[in-house]
Amino acid sequence: MTHSRARGSDATGEVSLDAGAPEALIFNPFDPVTRADPYPVYRRLREEDPVHRSPLGIWILSRYADIEPRLRDPRFSNDIRNANSLPLAAAEGVEERLERRSKVMLFVDPPDHTRLRGLVNKAFTPRTVETLRPRAQEIVDDLLGRVEGEGGMDLIADLAYPLPVIVIAEMLGVPPEDRDVFHKWSTDLARSLDPLLPEDVMVTIEQSADEFTEYFAKLIAERRANPGDDLLSALVAAEQAGDRLSEEELVSTCILLLVAGHETTMNLIGNGMLALLRQPDQLERLRADPSLVPNAVEELLRYDGTVQLTGRTAKEPIDIAGRTVEAGEICIMLLGSANRDPDRFEDPERVDVGRADIKHLAFGGGAHYCLGAPLARVEAQIAFTELLRRLPASLRLATDQPEWRDNIVLRGLKSLPLVW
Ligand code: HEM
After folding, report:
1. N or C: the chain end with fewer CB closer than 10 Å?
2. Residue 1 pLDDT more than 50?
3. How far apart are CA 299 and CA 255, in angstroms?
4. Is 307 close to ligand 1, i.e. is its CB under 6 Å away?
5. Full strand arrangement of the beta sheet holding 59-61
């Protein structure tokens, strides 16, 4: 299929999903104010135009009741090749990019999705992941041990980033000491989830994807010669066993796990701690009763989740609240908005670490429900428990205005300076 582009840009050259929309209701996730706090715009969308069609022809869903069933709806596809126009800022290299995405489980439908996910599923079940708890604890102890006596830390650089990277790298069998090497590639690839990226950013992303691929090709060759007790070796064995996995899919799976394995959990720890420090009564409640931590992690995922949105393409006309999404049209589902929907959650704008009914959509839903959810939970639970146990009650934010990353899909902080 050849694709046209859904492109919008204003006089400043800035691209926007809603370029040209009437002043009344513009959803522009690229606006720095929206990036710092997208929730007021989400509220307006839910109240004024919950099944919103941007002038670019992209649908934007914001209510829990509209999103939750559609994440499970097989009439929606994760494969953007089904779209009749693409949310890209430039046409160059589109076919290559689509080809690359077609090897990634997140961007394909059954049967390829079922096959690719089935190969790694076992490593991420809650039971297998529980066995990683002592190692995750050791890593947190070590990282916090280094800063405890310092009187301050950058939560992101000192804990939230290294913890999940070390864990996923060890699981895969990638040398954790290479993390400085793959940090940049990973950061670039995390941005590739965003729509309407400017051409120079796309070029950088493609370069990083090439370098990441080369890096894994070398590791794979090593594991072929010398298999180990890691996920990479297990995937190499699956590839060698015949038609279950191509080499390109093997590389894509490793890259997806490495990127998904750290950008997201890093942001959960960062966004979650920021929310707690801004609602200190909840921080104190948690400090007084650490048995609430698992529940608090769910509440923090609901309150300020790290995956703000996901996209689907309609494979046939789909009616949503009286409007029709036509076949080939893209629908953006604002998970972050669904999680603050007052029709679903009582007093949604407040963090309540003891909240009883938290069926949030932060990990998505349906067949693509986050594979790494059990791992993210274990890591975050240990991180929050230890942060509150080890750091003194004088713990506070060193800045009122922490800086957000440029990403649209993955919401997270560049740094979070804390003092005590
Ligand atoms: C707080 C942490 C995390 C959040 C909020 C999160 C969120 C999500 C969401 C919303 C999806 C579904 C996207 C969609 O339906 O389009 C997803 C998929 C996925 N996540 Fe996570 N994730 C987190 C951590 C992790 C970790 C630690 C890993 C792995 C090590 C991981 C691996 C994956 C994979 C492989 C998929 C694709 C699953 C599929 O397509 O079947 N995630 N994640």
Report:
1. N
2. no
3. 29
4. yes
5. 51-53, 59-61, 330-334, 309-314, 76-77
Tallying the residues shown for the chain, one arrives at 420
Question: Kind of pairing, strands 59-61 and 51-53?
Answer: antiparallel
- Confirm or reject: Cβ of 104 under 6 Å from ligand 1: no
Instruction: State the pLDDT at residue 7.
Output: 44
- The pLDDT tens digits of the residues spanning 38-75 come to 999 999 999 999 999 987 789 999 999 999 999 999 99
Name beta bridge partners: 287: none
Closest CA to 105 of 295, 339, 372, 332: 372
Beta strands in 321-413 (DSSP E): 323-325, 330-334, 396-397
Mutate to test the pocket of ligand 1, among 114, 231, 363, 375 (most ligand atoms within 8 A of CB): 363
User: Which residue's CA lies nearest to atom 40 of ligand 1?
Assistant: 106
What the block records as the tokens of 144 is 């916090």
111 upstream amide cis, omega within 30 of 0: yes
Nearest CA to ligand 1 atom 32: 372
Q: Where would I find the H helices in 124-230?
A: 126-130, 133-147, 155, 162-172, 179-191, 199-225
Confidence band, pLDDT 50/70/90 cuts, at residue 15 = very low
d(CA 100, CA 90): 17
> Measuring from atom 9 of ligand 1, which residue has the nearest CA?
363
Whole-number Å distance between alpha carbons of 155 and 383: 10
pLDDT tens column, 355-370 = 999 999 999 999 999 9
- Atom in ligand 1 nearest the alpha carbon of residue 71: 15
Question: What tokens appear for 118 in the block?
Answer: 């089935």
Show Cβ contacts of residue 340 under 8 Å, excluding neighbours closer than 6 positions.
39, 42, 43, 302, 303, 348, 349
CB 365 within 8 A of CB 352: no
pTM: predicted TM-score of the whole model, two decimal places: 0.92
Looking up tokens 């010398």, which residue turns up?
226
